[in-house]
Amino acid sequence: MKKGDHLFLVDGSGYIFRAYHALPPLTRKSDGLPVGAVAGFCNMLWKLMQDARNTDVGVVPTHFAVIFDYSAKTFRNEMYPEYKANRSAPPDDLIPQFGLIRQATRAFDLPCLEIEGFEADDLIATYARLACEAGADTTIISSDKDLMQLVGPTVSMYDPMKDREIKVPEVIEKWGVPPEKMIDLQALTGDSIDNVPGVPGIGPKTAAQLLEQFGDLDTLLARASEIKQNKRRESIIEHAEKARISRELVRLKHDVPVPEGLDDLVLQPPNGPKLIGFLKAMEFSTLTRRVAEATGADAAAIEAMPVAVEFDGKAHGPDLDAGDAAQPAPAGPAGEAASGPQAMTPAALVTARAEAAAANPIDRTAYVTIRDLATLEAWLADARETGILSIDTETTSLFPMEAELVGFSIATRPGKAAYVPLSHRNGKGDLLGGGELIEGQIPFHDALAVLKPVLADRSVLKVGQNIKYDWVLLYRLGLPMAPLDDTMLISYVLDGGSSSGNTGGHGMDKLSERWLGHIPIPYKDVAGSGKSQITFDMVDIDRATAYAAEDADVALRLWQVLKPRLVADGLTAVYERLERPLIDVIGRMERRGIAVDRQILSRLSGDFAQSAAALEDEIYQLAGERFNIGSPKQLGDILFGKMGFAGATKTATGQWSTSARILEDLAAEGHELPRKIVDWRQLTKLKSTYTDALPGYINRDTKRVHTCYSMASTSTGRLSSSEPNLQNIPIRTAEGRKIRTAFVAEPGHKLISADYSQIELRVLAHVADIPQLRQAFADGIDIHAMTASEMFSVPVEGMPSEVRRRAKAINFGIIYGISAFGLANQLSIPREEAGAYIRKYFERFPGIRDYMDATKATARDKGFVETIFGRRAHYPEIRSSNPQVRAFNERAAINAPIQGSAADIIRRAMVRIEAALADAGLDDVEMLLQVHDELIFEAPEGQVEKAIPVIRQVMEHAAMPAVSMRVPLHVDARAADNWDEAH
């Protein structure tokens, strides 16, 4: 190793536990071997290796090694027997994965280093010292505070989970001391996880203050009598020896007799066949495909290698180069090799699951009503045995922040489902109270007390259909639930926009009919419909059991059928990155809600009513008579019958069409009456939809408005909101912006609006790789002015606003596949002129035309297009013989990767932002709303200045590390007392 080289040292043991806890339990399909940590480790290491070999990313290592702990006992135990004595044994399902992970490391052709008697951190410290002496740099892949003592001019750390580099300033920011004082700081604070004693009552902040005052630990202990605070002084004097022992326990050894020299750690080119052989043995199909693509290997021609499995807790696996010397795995229950590769591919598993579902029809008579705690406890014990619990709640409302829990249904195996009634009433007695409770139900709080630990048990996967609803409801009742899987979202990822996943296609009834061949009981058959509909608490318990237990049973069966398709279709990453982790994030947003000022709404409602009345008088004068402006028939008769405006069309019922498009066209031609009608419609809609309706949505308990987000209602991945819809508040009109003034921060708080700037144009510049756009965004140039300058040869300096406006219309129009006709209407120019603009645009930016043509070709070939993160939007009708249908699908297919990628980016930001705020000590800053490209937060006034940079940092780097954007993302963020002022 020489000066200029760069050594990467991966804290392998830290990687193992991060991988284990980051993912839900995963087993090898052929034999049930636990492989979740192995899968997470391999994916993390592959991503790191790909970035490490990518010169565009940044630092490229020349040397690389993965370091592991050999065993729990080291020289530190001889020094202090209680060291790490309180650590429990590894989970049973993790033990066999230790050896597999070491074998995985060797399959990556990376040094796998460990020494008996020393911890991984000691080897890392030694190699970092050796690299420094050779004049090279070192990056430690870890976020462990124990390693921060090593950070210095040539040594840094990198946290791959947060995509964050840790250098000297970051250590000081986090702990208040530079790296060289981290040993003394840890000696004072101790470490409860490692059982390092430290000095009782001394936390990180106090320790940093003391070291700032006295310089180092020895000086502090020698001059402890000078400490002014009695309790602090006495504790340090009394426990001085513990501090000294702790210092030796946390001090890393720099002189370990390492097994390999630096020159043995040279990073080698990837060995595709070797790695693929291991991955095929583990049955990691998606990663196998990625490695094959990246290395040019033919995965189909590579056999799964023999891989030994150790179940006794040993930390070592055979050398992958040992060939026939590798020992076979223990035999399975049928005498088959437990680790031997099986013929069942992911696609075959999908088929097998579908066949099993078809062969096991649903029998509602087998469902059980659970009426006592002992039975409920037995069912929940079975859930712990199977590791899965399908759950569904029955309530009195569609809105989880308003609903009362009536009962819940559970299923632990297909066909084994039950309903637990809690609050069913008979309708007798006090009608205001809803009637008397029916006998034979478990007391409400007793049932929830038994259910709570299972819902919180991370070893039991909770499955549901639209499980976000149940999450919000149960969280309100003090029952947090994790981990989660949602059959609706799995279907959405698999079939978004396809003929099997169109509007309404992800609902349970549709999914059940399609995948299980079973039609569930309609809700109206149980609770009635219309005026005769009753709330679920008034439904007979036997009928409720058949309906509710069926929901849990169907959800579990759907999960068994659909979940393997994620692997078979290569969409696991989309679900795991963009959907599943967002469930509880959005659940918390819905639960928090946002404050609304009733007085502002009332005042605006009055103002809108007066303005609408004034417009009505003007409309009547222009029309020459009074009529019902809200009646399409009367309005049509006035515009096209009496006044004879051109461009009239009729609807299927024979009436004149008075759609917004027709009125806008007439207004654009200079007709005053249609313009007044458009203005009147906008005002009355604002009044009825928002200023009059919003007070009715204010929750009686929280006094806030709680919108409901739908995660599976658009083809592109965008969220939608309802009850109330807060994403359709118009912001291009002054009246629309006034609505936002009613959304306010609580006293002592501010609302923070963080909005992506022109994100879809930036995504377009990335996916179409347009040099001019990329450069303009990189330089921070006004993109619309740049476009106008390119197209019309007009200098940016002093550019007329009209020229820029036309370029802006074209820029955004291109994203949505705008036609010459559409652009002509938007700019009020002849169609020929608009067509000439579009042609010139494509001449100046030929890459955009190339992107559009390639995207349409892909959509016609595959039936779908993908976002930059792999989300698919299906357009099966793009091959339609109907030109209009085909053209619509082509425009949608062009737009979907752009709008969908922007939607995915903000989803990734939402998933990460709460943890980033917590890490920054900003737990009181809460995310309240998502409105397209904007996130709204509420923060204490004193935390606003610190919160905005954190929010902006997460949002602007949300695409990383999955995608390295060719253009920078930019976020405008500001704080104010209300939403309008903050935006």
From TrEMBL:
Segments forming domain 3'-5' exonuclease: 367-567
Span list, region Disordered: 313-343
EC number: 2.7.7.7
Cleavable signal peptide: none
Enzyme class of the recorded protein, top EC level: transferase
Residue stretches of biased makeup (Low complexity): 323-343
Chemical reaction(s) catalysed: DNA(n) + a 2'-deoxyribonucleoside 5'-triphosphate = DNA(n+1) + diphosphate
Protein name per UniProt: DNA polymerase I
Organism, scientific name: Aquibium oceanicum
